[in-house]
């Protein structure tokens, strides 16, 4: 009798201690995981907090898991009531909950399911798996030490409930944090941009599929004249490895984005010359209708001359690129920015988005690093700036590093002409080469033309000619509607 009571006391201590430690560790880990996303509006501060708090969260989840196992071991010595009794207890507790609380809980769960269905599914599946593991562990431990009949342990039922709550906190909280944090680091396959043979090649020896006006995507909200088939993230999924984007200041209104015309450096005449009178008139009509008051906060958007005809919030787009790179650790990108924003704001944009973590900070110019080196250092994004790179050493003036072909082609015949590979911006000084390969049909790019000029025979002939005439591997092959034709096959053949 005395030994049984002593054993029961020790079990009580184990249950209480395990539950307390598991609960405290789970709470700390949840705060460390979610607090930067819930309470911090500044993206740069959020990114910094993520870096500082992530090790703490990981350690807390390890402690929580260990404590949950201790609690499970102690609970295994208690024989739970029959399933029918447990079900009646659950029903009684549910009936004591007010209808309003149940309705609000249902609405909240439904809202989460509608907003983040995949994340919720991941949490549910992972929680179910963890419950199965813990249940199996409990059953195994019961085979080692027989459970005490429930009739003798009624006074310990509250402890069992605490144990279940602690284990549930570990299971559900851990699964949710795992889903939010993105899970474990993706496995590496020993490839560089999808091919093992590219790992030993230097940056200037590799051809990258690029998208002209990458942000101007079919299906993206607000874009009236798309130049690409899909969003930037989908482009990356499809194999695009060079993004050509334009940054502008603008104001978000209830019905669109108004360009900051007081800051925009391009005169109306210049834009008309580049994009046509119809494009400018459409933008001005939209500006009058979108409800711009002048009181909206100024932000940076990815736009093509006028944000009224299409705009993507720049920090969101760049954050998407950063998150994609985290999930794909063996990919190298080139980011070309036609900047109509101040250099310090452009740099801050890259910091706020988190993309700064993958930016290439090494020497810009020959000898360029190999793709393998860039991947090993996690410096996988070369940032090129068209107008003002400012003082940041990792923002490079594009025409100092990259030669370029002309880009103002009105017909496919002009694109195929013998002079289509001649020097343009950058002269012949750079060690990289941008081949602009699209036909300008402003205001609306035409997929039928893209399909023609992106065809393998047409594109291959021009790329080989430009490579021969300029004496450089085309570093970026920039196209419209990258899915039309055979851009990927042609570029792979080129390199």
TrEMBL record:
It holds the Pfam family PI-PLC_X. Keywords: Membrane, Transmembrane, Transmembrane helix. InterPro entries: PI-PLC_domain, PLC-like_Pdiesterase_TIM-brl. GO terms for molecular function: phosphoric diester hydrolase activity. The keyword Acyltransferase does not apply. GO terms for biological process: lipid metabolic process. This is Uncharacterized protein. It comes from Solirubrobacter phytolaccae. The lineage of its organism: Bacteria, Bacillati, Actinomycetota, Thermoleophilia, Solirubrobacterales.
